[in-house]
Amino acid sequence: MTTTQNSASTLELSTIQPIAAHERHGRARDLFTIWFGSNIMLLTVVTGALAVTVFKLSFVAALLALVLGNLVGGIFMALHSAQGPQLGVPQMVQTRGQFGSFGSLLVVALVVIMYLGFFASNLVLGGQTLSARFPVVSTNAGILLVGVVSVIATVFGYRLIHGYTRLMSWLSGGVLLLSFVWVLFVHGLPADFMQRNGFNLPGFMGALSIAALWQLAYAPYVSDYSRYMPQDTGSRTAFWSSYWGCCLGSILPMVLGVMVGLAADGGDVVAGLIGMTGGFSAVMVAVFSIGIAATNAMNLYCGTLSAITVGQTLIPSWNAKAGWRAFIALSLFGGSLALALLGQDNFMANYTNFILLLLYVLVPWSAINLVDYYLVAHGKYDVLSFFRRDGGIYGTFNWTAVNCYVLGILVQVPFMSTELYTGVVAKAMNGADISWIVGLGVVSPVYWLFSRKRQRALAGARA
């Protein structure tokens, strides 16, 4: 492989096409840095703070809920990542192997909406933080600045995003460490820090669910960033590199968020973080804002690939390349920019509701995908069938998967606990939300039982 081909500035020509063996490159440690570097940002800090500002947990209870949620959710995230080197296609393309060519469209469309939501959330937080620390920069100008950097990385594609997050692993990691030092030893924590808030079961389950979802939200695109890895990278190596990169990169800034959320007055986490890091806050805000742009580039890149997946399903002859990726990325950026500018005034309320709703639609898809890949198909798929309008051997609709997906959403309804709706079981449990646990527990065995007959038929078709 030449130096030019390995350069981060090399324009990626492919979009959703299978990655041929001679195009494969990278090492397992690249999977660690992309997930470690992309998670150390302000949105992760704010998400961790929800455990004490929204769910009213003490430091110890919040720490336990967030660590446990990340470690459990990270299992599912990393299992999806391990699929990339084996199949060499984006995650949403591979979903056609479970749902069929047209059956997968609903899931792919929901994922595009998810990317836009996270992209807009990051834009708002980045813009507000830059404006708070550097008043000369308006919130709208900060939103636009973070967005432009994200679009540039998306246009160049896979290599630049990996290079970007590799740099941020060191830069953001160092700044995070110094932020801990400043908060603990320079500013200091209140004397009653450990006595603030307490334990409550609904809050504990809410914080645990938020942390688990943080990991599960990567599931629909995590293998997009491992699909260029050589096939001999190995599933086990890909799993652990992704798992520890994402878990450590998430837990550490979330702990900082818990500390700031408990110590700061008024519940404004960003203002509290700026105040508690004093003179270091200018560097911290600048670096974490750059980190937001890196993560947003990943959201926009995968949202673009998913949009192309929808288009290619409807027009199989469409072979989108780099030009189409740039055009679609700019179009999606326009939509996210509008969401960010219109929704910035109620950011925290909108963001909390958004990620809870995501939990309900992502869980059944993740269960179906993982059961199918590891227990039904055992990682063996006819990749060429993914790109046929009729779905090839997988057909246009796999009603087993579609029905299980709908079932997975419905069984969660009694256990949901949000501002918009609280189910009867959640009310009986004083608002504790265990819907995602129920969704995984029901969908996984049901899909496995009903898929065995179909898998025997598919095995005969591949023979």
From TrEMBL:
One annotated GO molecular function: transmembrane transporter activity
Keywords: Membrane, Transmembrane, Transmembrane helix, Transport
KW Transport (keyword) present: yes
Pfam hit, one: Transp_cyt_pur
Record Gene3D superfamilies: Hydantoin permease
Superkingdom of origin organism: Bacteria
GO cellular component, one term: plasma membrane
CDD domains from the UniProt entry: SLC-NCS1sbd_CobB-like (cd11484)
Membrane topology of the entry: Multi-pass membrane protein
Database matches in PANTHER family: PURINE-CYTOSINE PERMEASE FCY2-RELATED
Protein's recorded name: Putative purine-cytosine permease yxlA
Organism whose genome encodes this protein: Pseudomonas knackmussii (strain DSM 6978 / CCUG 54928 / LMG 23759 / B13)
Gene: yxlA
